[in-house]
Amino acid sequence: MELYPLKFKPIYKERVWGGNKLTSLMGRKTPNGKIIGESWELSSVKGSLSVVSNGFLKGNNIQEIIEIYMSDLVGEKVYNKFGIEFPLLFKLIDSAERLSVQVHPNDEIALERHRAYGKTEMWYVLAADKNSRIYVGFDKKIDREEYRNRVGNSSLAEILNLESVQKNDVFFLPAGRIHALGEGLLIAEIQQTSDITYRIYDWGRENNPNTAREMHTQLAEDVIDFTHFETYRTQYLPQQNKAVELVNCSCFTTNLLHLTQKIERDYAQLDSFVVYMCMEGQARIECNNTTAETVSAGETVLIPAMTEFVNIIPEKEIKMMEVYVP
Question: Which domains are assigned to the chain?
Answer without folding.
Answer: 6-221 (2.60.120.10), 243-324 (2.60.120.10)
